[in-house]
Each structure stands twice: as C-alpha cells, then as structure tokens.
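Researcher: Next entry in the queue.
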Amino acid sequence: MSRFDQQQNTTPETLLAVKVVEGDANNGVARTAWAAGMEGSVARTLLDRDARAFFHQSLSTPCLDAIIKAAGPFIINAAGRRILDFHGNSVHQVGHGHPEVIEAIERTVRALPFSPRRFTNEPAVRLAERLIELAPGELAGNARVLLVPSGAVAVGLAVRLARAVTGRHKTISFAGSFHGATLEAAWIGGQDLFTRGMGPLPPGALHVEPPCSQPCNLCDGLCTGRCADRVEALLAAGDVAAVVAEPVRATTVHVPPPAYWSRVREACTRHGTLLIFDEIPTGLGRSGRMWACEHFGVTPDILVIGKGLGGGIVPIAGIVGRAELNDAGVIRLANLSLGHFTHEKSPAGAAAALATLEILTRDALPARAAMLGSSWAQDLREALFDLADAASVASGLMVRGVRNLGLMVAVELGGPRARDIADRCLYEMLARGLSCKVGGGVNLVFFPPLNIERTQLERATSIIIESLMMTQRA
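Model: Structure for this entry, 474 residues:
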C-alpha cells in the first residue's frame, strides 16, 4: 500500500474532530474576496436585487453569481460562461433540462395542470406503481407509496409513519447528519446550523456517532461492524420508533463498513424498530446501483426519495414503505391524515419522475455511474499523487485521499489549513469553470450528472489539480 493510499483512511477520531457541516457557507474570507471580484460584472445588479429581496441565510443569499441557463452538465452564468455543474444539489442525474423530461411535463400540463387532493390521476398512479417495481430488495412488488412536494417533508412523513405503526416517538440518527431543513427534519438531523436559536426541539431525537471508516479502532484493524453496537445499545431500551440514516453519507461520501447495515438491520428487526433509509441524495442511480442500500444487501422498512426524482425540474419526493404498514400499528392509517398536501399527486411532478425513471433504466445510467465513478476516482488519485509530497505538506496542503461510490466522489484534504484550502479551492474551481460542494469543511465533493461524458470528467480533473496548486501557493 502506497503512502497516498494510506492517507485515504479516516479514523473515527478524525471524523469527530472535524465538525460536519452540510455545505459551504457564504460568510467566509474566500466568499468576501469572491464578492469583491464580482464588482462591475454583468451579474452585480441581479445579485444586489437578490440580496435586497430575500432573507439572508448561511447557505444561500447573498449568492455568489447569477445563472441564466442550465443545460446538460452545464450552468451558464450571466456573463455567458459555461460551468460544469458537479454540485447540482444532487438533482441532475439525467442532466439539466433533459428534453424527454421537458416534453413529458409539457404534454401532461396541457391536459391536466392540477389534481385536487381527493381525486387520483393516471400519472400519479403509474409513478407509484413504477416506484414499487424499482424498490430495493423485499420492497419490490410489496410496498405502498406516498408522494409529497419535497424531500424534507418526505423525511418527516416517514417518521410520522413509523410513529403511527410502532406507537413510539424516539428516533436514532447520526451526529452531524442532514435530513432536510424543515424543523421536523432538522430535529432528526444533527447539525446546529439548522436549529441554533430555535429553542426547545421535539423530544426523542437520539444521535450516535456515525459508522467507522477503516482502519477501525473498535475492531483492531479491519472493521467488522462493531460500531453498530452504538445503535444496538439505544435500541435495547425498546422505545425507538425508527433509525433514520443515509446508507452512505452524501455530504462527505463516507461509506460504512460492509457489515454495518446488516447488523443494524438485524437489531431493528429484533427490537421492533423501523429502519428508514434517506436516499434523497444517494438514490436514483448515483451510487452505481439504483439505490445505495443495495450495495449492502439491506432493505429498509421505509425508503425516502427526492431531489432528482423530478428530473431536476419539478420538486417531487416520496416514501416507499412495506405494504403491511398500511394496516398495522397502534393507529390505523385509514383514521389518520398522514400526508395531506396540496400537490400530493402532482400530475406534472409524476410525469417528470416517470420520464426520469425511464431514462435511468433505459440508458443503464446506474451501471454507467459505477463504471465512470470508479475510473474517475482512480484518475484523481493518480493525478493528486504528486500533490501529496513533502513540499505540499510543508505548504499546508495535504490530500488524505479520494473516496467514491459510483458518481459520488470526495477529495478529502488534511492538515491545519484544510478548511481554508477547501474553501479557497471552491472559488478557484468556479473561476475555471467547475462547480462543486465543500462537505464537512474539508471535502471537495463532486456529484456530476450520470450521463456525463468522459472528456468532461477529464476537464474537471485538470481544473481540480490547477485549483489545488493555485490554492496552496496562496
């Protein structure tokens, strides 16, 4: 194993030492410098109008640029510059503005622009049926669906279903996790960025340390999943409704040990607790399988879907849960309004989702993501090797390694300047035509469209290397 390969390992202590945050804030030194550089740009007037019209918040307004178009893997800013969008808020599995998705929306809207709650419609029913067909493991063919307008709402809906079925109110999730920005979803998540100053939150949200990365200090080397004992210890109390988690942490692309989820699954079953997998950012082919949980051979009781489901155009999300939950539990769902939403069965949203699912399956995009993700991650490791030398470490730049699962790719930086370098590198990449995300403060995270061209990945590699080299000199 090379020195660079050894640097890819992240210990639990490293994870705990780095405060996980969902994305890159807009109030740092690098953003201030970027904003100053926007003076006199064609976007400045619109940026100023945006700053006056919207409430300011850490991850959005004030914004960094204005875009006028999005097509395929590109966003085009007000100056006409094409930027490879390897962020996309995880919605662009099929690229921006896929013509088949647009055509399906237009065709549906002309005939049925809205469906009142108490009526059904063909696109919504077809979507539910298709999601049941494509569901992972034992859910396939034996599930029911609820549709909602956003992923955060879907997470809250999944927890409400678990509470109704089990008669319990507690949840277990990971410290530093993110499951949406509504108060309900933020309470389940573990980041104070979304709850600070909010006062008392609903009781019952328990948080445990996330799964280990290897080498594992709990298992004296190769992890056997003993880190799942943390979940088991809380489940033993017998009053937990659900374990809520991403099967793979999207913000940092940390992949749990192979044995982890099977141990949690078995413990949930034994203690009568439902397992909820939040696959809002990781599902729909991004991991190299249709659902990330398929990599672990584990089926949740409830699967949460969102983001890319609407083809990056229409906001639509939903849950897919075991069919028997419909008639089980302390409260029968027929006597409870579990998901009462105005746009619950949106014809346009369902049409967009059906077109997206057709593209994903017909074009075998999950398998393509597996192939491209593996080769691109290896290309990045080789390209970054030269940066992981003594001179780079002396200058403050240390590359811990490259992680990927499908086309979820993270370059983790280390050393005392890691956060500063990651933040500055984000803007260096933007200036060169590549948009990504900073996850956990020290990870450059890349989520390209699944139909990205190999030449565009090669261009992204060049930009990443150029940007890191420029940043380490600053």
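Model: The mean pLDDT is 89.
Researcher: Noted, moving on.
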